[in-house]
Specification:
Blueprint (H helix, E strand, L loop, with lengths): L1 H31 L9 E7 L1 E24 L4 E6 L6 E2 L4 E5 L2 H43 L5 H40 L2 E3 L4 E6 L6 E2 L3 E18 L11 E5 L8 E8 L9 E9 L10 E18 L5 E3 L4 E8 L2 E13 L2 E6 L6 E5 L10 E6 L1
Parallel strand pairs: 1-19
Antiparallel strand pairs: 1-18, 2-9, 2-13, 3-5, 3-8, 4-7, 5-6, 7-9, 9-12, 10-11, 10-13, 11-12, 13-17, 14-15, 15-16, 16-17
Helix pairs in contact: 2-3
Amino acid sequence: MRNKKLIFVIVLSAMAAIVGLMKNYPIQAEENKPVSSERVPTAVETAVVSRSDISETADVVGTLVPKFQTDVKAEYPGIVKEVYVTEWIRVKKGDKLASLDIREAETLVNKAKSAVEMARANLLEAKVAAQRADREYKRMIRLKESGLTTQQSVDEAGTAKEAAVARQSAASAQLNAAQHDFDQAKVRFSKTVIYSPIDGILSERHISMGDLATDKTLFRIVDNRILDLTVTVPSKYLRFLKPGLELRFRTDAFPGQTFIGKVKYINPSVNETDRSVKVVAEVANDPEVLKGGLFIEGHIVIGERKGVLKVPRNALITLDVNTQKGELFVVENNLAKHRIVSVGMTTGEMIEVVSGVSEGEQVICRGGFNIKDGDKVKINGGK
């Protein structure tokens, strides 16, 4: 009986060993199985090479400034008697803005007028005296010819004539000076009323009744109907710049809207520091929604081409701006194929491709930076 138990234990142990070997064999077999060297396809997004019109642009930023604005000042000092306008109203050229106390100016006019009248009377008297001296001189000459007077008397008459003529000239000069002072006094009197020199909006007012108007600014008038926009453009675009080019821009004050200006002036010299050139564009602001002082971002359209091949700019993994050469990948049979391309004009997110790809090919525009020529790819999306 004891021998039977021993045999039973041995059999059970052997069976357990066999089961253990069977369980361990698949694991070892799996571990010994060779690992596949095949890479998982890289997920990419693509765009189709297509033809369309393209515009090359130069990006710019700047600040809008009213083309016409003026600070109105009093040409002569005086106490402000009346103010006819308030801020932010529209005024026209010639509208009354304010008036000054006229009493001092009126006094100056009256004094100058009296001086003119006195100078005119003095001149008349001097003329009469000169005429009388001339007649006396001529009479003395006739008497001398008749032997009825001496040469000394003739000389004295001539001297008296010259003195009378000199007094007449002095009186005439005094009248001219008095007339000038009178004219100036009348001008000053007319300046006691201050008028708007241009059409526009009264943006600032710095005086009130009773203030002393000096040479400080009394009003500021802004005409926003035409705005100037001064921007800097890299000198590499200089050969394309000319008056009349469109400048399209946006401003945060009006999201989603695009405004258009026209290049008016181009600085003839290039900035030596950053190799840029200043350009002034005019913006016709009708209706007057834009205001001076707004910051803008935009671009100047410097060239246009019809029916060119183009790809997204982000399809290029390298770009040499000097040689106009770049690199990208196209997809052929789910494989990435390296291409060297020649590029042309750039606008926004698109760039012209002169050579290296064909219409209808798919270029990788996302996910291609770690790809090598011949890698498998999987297209997840595209344009």
